[in-house]
Amino acid sequence: MGFNRALSASIVLGLYSGFMLAVAIAMSVRVDGIRLAAFLWGLTIVLCALFLTPILASGRKRGRPENDADVTNVRLALEEFNEGIGGWRALSHIRGEGMGVSISLSNSSNPLLIIEKALQVAEKCKLVFRFPKNDTSLRDRTLPILEEKVGTSRIQRRTKSLTVVPKVVLDRSVIITRSMMLCPPLMAAGAMGLYSVAPEQPMLAFVGAVAGLVLGMLVVTNKGR
Question: What's the rounded Cα separation, in Å, for the pair 177 and 105?
Fold first, then answer.
């Protein structure tokens, strides 16, 4: 990501998470609540800048600028299914689409073999399988096969196409970013919710914040399985 971008991202995360925590503290603490909340907000920004910047800076590179390479690799792998002029050919039926590879199954006598081979050689990029208009049953026959091979959570369904998305990779940068965006509001809501039940027991605010943190981490690390 680079140091400058990592520093900017850390400051933004500190601003956001610090604000949510400051709101919870200001609502829960009666005496000097605003002053304490402002101090902790600033402290959160500084701590995020110091500790998150090196972690985010060393994270993996985002995006897939090598989309052309994906198209080339899929074409080379599927050339064995070429059927000549007028039939299915890798050069004419495979192209780039957004950040993925589109594979048209029109004019193919071996569509299921093409799909199986494509899944083997392109595990890390998005694959869009487009079905012919004159064979409406092919999509219905292909869907259960894809669900068995890659799972239902990785399949996007359209009327004339099925898209297989790559596996979700949760590295430390993704987990940190999502946690900083999701956990603070849940912690704030939990703290204020329990504190409002019994204002004379400040410990309930702490318990609510912990409950919000646990819930946030469960959501962040959930892969949709």
Answer: 39
- Residue 164 in 3-state DSSP? strand
At a CB cut-off of 8 Å and minimum separation 6, what does 167 contact? 123, 154
pTM: 0.55
Report the chain's C-alpha Rg in angstroms: 25
Distance, CA of 56 to CA of 86 (rounded, Å)? 51
**CA-closest candidate to residue 6, choices 46, 63, 41, 55:** 55
b/e 158-191 (16+ beta carbons within 10 angstroms → b): eeebbbbbbeeeeeebbebbbbbbbbbbbbbbbb
According to DSSP H, which parts of 122-163 are helical? 137-150
Is-contact 211 190, C-beta < 8 A? Answer: yes
Give the span between the Cα atoms of 106 and 212, in whole angstroms. Answer: 51
**CB count in 10 Å sphere of residue 147:** 14
pLDDT per residue rounded down to tens, the chain (225 residues): 566 777 777 787 777 777 777 776 666 665 566 777 777 778 878 887 887 777 767 655 544 445 688 889 999 999 999 988 888 999 999 998 878 899 999 988 888 899 989 988 877 888 999 998 877 788 888 888 888 888 888 888 988 899 998 877 666 677 777 777 777 777 777 777 776 777 677 677 778 778 878 887 787 777 554
